[in-house]
Amino acid sequence: MSKILPGESPGQDVWTACNEGSRPRNWGLLATGLLGGSLVVLYSIAAPFITPALRKHCLPFVPATPKQIDNVLSVLKGRSGSLVDIGSGDGRIVIAAAKVGFKAVGYELNPWLVWYSRYHAWKAGVHHNAKFYISDLWKVSFSQYTNVVIFGVPQMMLQLEDKLGEELQPEAKVVACRFPFPHWKPSHSVGEGIDTVWGYHSESFRRKDD
Ligand SMILES: C[S@@+](CC[C@H](N)C(=O)[O-])C[C@H]1O[C@@H](n2cnc3c(N)ncnc32)[C@H](O)[C@@H]1O
Hints:
By secondary structure, the protein is an alpha/beta fold. 45% of the residues lie in helices and 15% in strands. It has six helices and seven strands. The protein is elongated and about 75 Å long. S-adenosylmethionine binds next to helix 3 and strand 2.
């Protein structure tokens, strides 16, 4: 039995004993909370990068190389107006296009990449001409754009060919990076290997019944 010292109340040692006993439990709760919180944060950061790979068309984030961007701009040389990058990643193509005078827009599923792109555009001083939207490319109409850029994957190009063929105006030009469209005939191509880009005029993508 513990001795009660002068100046201590009988309940004090009970309180101290309880408190000491619960300390490890508090640390355990704190550690569990921290671990759980970290996992939630990690998941919310990683999930937008992983989920594109689990969709019907696996289209992961692979940024365009500087050479690829040069090639896109060279295929679009002499053109102006609106431009869209379908699946805009970290915004590098949209920002490069805005720098040479296009009114450029990017549609991207991953919100982190969209926020990063907006920040990057603001830092580059082109945020008035470089806009980014968190959207699924299959749910957006690209009919208003006269310059269309896609760095996709082979599995999606057939479906995208149909979609763009239905939506785009006769004055539009399409640029495919790294993977060409399966049926359209390119008017020209620039670069080689993984940096190759193909340019398509409306004669190749307009539907015969238009
Ligand atoms: C190959 S990367 C190209 C990135 C950028 N265009 C570039 O050239 O640097 C394809 C991008 O499309 C995005 N993406 C995948 N599925 C998408 C979808 N359904 N709608 C919009 N963006 C999508 C990915 O998150 C990824 O950032």
